[in-house]
Amino acid sequence: MTFQAGNPANPDAACSSGGAAAVSAAVFAAALILLSVPASAENELYRGQVVSVQDGDTITVTTTDYEQLRVRFYGIDCPEKNQNHGPEAKEYLTGLVFGKTVDIEVLDIDRYSRQVGLVRLDGTLINQRMIEAGYAWTYEQYCKVKDLCADFRNAESSARGRRAGLWADSDPVAPWDHRRSRRKR
Predict the structure, then answer these.
(1) Residues identified as active-site
(2) Would 145 be classed as within a structural domain?
(3) Which uninterrupted H or E stretch holds 20?
(4) Average pLDDT for consecutive 10-residue bins of the chain (185 residues)?
């Protein structure tokens, strides 16, 4: 395919009958390619070593390709560092994954350019493990994978019933409420 650059003074020059047909063919071909990509191709998979734990739901991983990824755990929210049980959540996660090789399935990119994903260690889903231990809530606002989020909710209910981690408090404050109250100040 040959593309003719348009004349900046006359932008319609590139859309002469031959140019327009070539552009239309290129757009059609690109649309066919995009439609043929399976939906599962959206989720990127990485393997890497955990080199840093920022808090109970964010880690930094060096991949096998030596790329550094900041990963936010999908579907959960842990207490903030300056909140009750925040330091314990970070310490628990550090004990689970720091220095170890994890598998990451990226489901999204958040507004802070972090990869948002499912983190597994030897097949164990760490996102859910944080909930089971009582160090995370199911993040209903962002948890949209139906069966997975149902599993998260069940794990949270179990942790509440056992009064595990943050559920030992009589009225724990959800991290999103904590962040909102700090913004109002």
Answers:
(1) 72, 80, 114
(2) yes
(3) helix 17-36
(4) 39 46 43 36 87 98 96 97 96 98 97 96 98 98 96 98 97 93 80
For 153, the domain range is: 42-173
Sequence-separated (6 or more) residues with CB below 8 Å from residue 169: 84, 85
Q: For residues 179 and 173, is the Cβ–Cβ distance under 8 A?
A: no
Domain membership flag for residue 63: yes
Q: What is the CATH number of the domain that holds 51?
A: 2.40.50.90
What is the pLDDT, as a whole number, of residue 184? 80
pLDDT at 78: 97
Strand partners of residue 169:
none
Strand partners, 146: none
Q: How far is it, in rounded angstroms, from Cα 56 to Cα 78?
A: 5
Q: How many Å apart are CA 45 and CA 41, to the nearest integer? A: 10
Model confidence, pTM: 0.76
Place of tokens 């393997």: 47
Residue 18 is predicted with a pLDDT of: 54
Long-range Cβ contact pairs of 172-181 (< 8 A, separation 24 or more): 172/79, 172/84, 172/85, 173/83, 173/84, 174/77, 174/137, 175/77, 175/78, 175/79, 175/80, 175/83, 175/137, 176/77, 176/139, 176/141, 178/79, 178/80, 178/83, 179/80
Q: How is residue 147 annotated by DSSP? A: H
Q: What is the DSSP string of 91-122?
A: HHHHHHHTTSEEEEEEEEE-TTS-EEEEEEET
